[in-house]
Amino acid sequence: MLKEFKEFAVKGNVMDMAVGIIVGAAFGKIVSSFVGDVVMPPIGVMLGGVNFTDLAYVLQEAVGETKAVAINYGKFLQTIIDFVIVAGAVFVAVKTINSMKKVEEAPAEPEAEPEPSKEEVLLGEIRDLLKTRN
To answer: Any transmembrane segments, and where (predicted)?
Structure first.
C-alpha cells in the first residue's frame, strides 16, 4: 500500500496539481492585496471617502464586552471584486494556452474515402441501369 501511494504521489499529474494549488494560493493573496490596497481606495474616494471594509449593517450594537453583530457587506463586495479579477485572469490564461495549442497542432489531412468493393460497384451499375429503363 505504501508503494502504491508513493507511485501515486510522484506521478506528474499530482505534482503539477500541487504546484498549481500553491501558485494559485499565492496568486489569490496578490489579487486580494491588489483589490484591497490599489483598486478599492480610489473607488472609495470617488464615492465620498468610503472605506469598503467598514461598510456594514449593524444588527446589534456592542454592549459591554460583547462585540457588535453586523453584516459586513463591504468585505463581501471586496471579495466579489477579488473573484471577478481572478476569474478574468484565469479566463485569459486558459484562452491564451488554448490558442497556443491550436497553433502547435497541424491540421490533419482528411482521410481518403476507401475504394468501393466489387459488390458495391456492381450494385451501383445495376441501380444506374434500372434508372435508365424507367
So the answer is: 76-94
Distances (CA, A) of 30 to 2, 20, 38, 44, 121: 37, 15, 11, 20, 69
47/86 Cα distance (integer angstroms): 24
Residue 93 within any structural domain of the chain: yes
**Is the model's pLDDT at 15 over the cut of 80?**
no
Q: Looking at the domain assignment, is residue 56 inside a domain? A: yes
User: Could you read off the pLDDT of 29-75 as tens digits, one per residue?
Assistant: 888 888 888 888 888 888 787 777 788 899 989 888 888 899 999 88
| CA distances, 20 to each of 27, 31, 131 (Å) | 10, 16, 66
The answer to the question of residue 121 being in a domain is no
Query: Mean pLDDT, the chain, as a whole number?
Result: 82
Residues 53/75, Cβ–Cβ less than 8 Å? yes
Count of domains forming the chain: 1
Q: How many other CB atoms sit within 10 Å of the CB of residue 55?
A: 17
The answer to whether 69 and 50 are in contact (CB under 8 A) is no
What residues contact residue 54 under an 8 Å CB cut-off, 6+ apart? 74
